[in-house]
Design a protein that fits this description.
Length: 236
Amino acid sequence: MTAKNIQPIETRYKGYRFRSRLEARWAVFMDHLGLAWDYESQGYLVDGKPYLPDFLVRPDDKEGAFWLEIKGSFPTEEERLKVRGLAEGTGIRAFLYSGKLESPAPDLSHLDMTRYVGPHERDYAWTDDHGWDKSADRSVDWEVGLTPTAFLFGPRRARDDKSDFLWWAECTACGYVKISRAGQRAWCPKFDDLSLEELERRFGPLYPCFGHRTPRILAAYEAARSARFEHGESGA
Ligand SMILES: [Zn+2]
């Protein structure tokens, strides 16, 4: 929020007072998919500054809980540092999500393995808020024009903080929902103990196999966008 004379209207949903409609809509989205969440359950001092993270999502699997911080627009560096500090300080991975309440990519099921992976010599031009640059002469076609949706920060600083194509996706074998890169259904933590061969024998080829536009995921976006809420109190 840049202007001081404007602020989001609080929104009531399920007994919670959300700071914005957008956050409440994401709560509806997760409910539709059966994901358990807490809202603003715990505040922290991150590098000396108070911070109250939006959601702690608690899926029923061994990948465990994750923080979900919702932004209406591409996050600033200050916001990114805060969420990175949260992940490192609590030891829980954290998504900083600024994607819209809609499927972030078209149906990609026509892609074969070759076109999914693209050329091996990678010299694409990445811009953090726009993804792969259209001017790059050697990009993976299907990624050009897609906007990154989120940053993922791990508990340890193992990778650069770079925006990525992190999409809500459903395992098309068991219905398990996670945020995964490019909406890939594999690996599904429910089948973690099976070999790749066994998985492919049971469910067919795992790559590329996208679960970001399943009927259930699309219905969850629709439910989130169309939800009506009581008026909250103004945040004065
Ligand atoms: Zn699964």
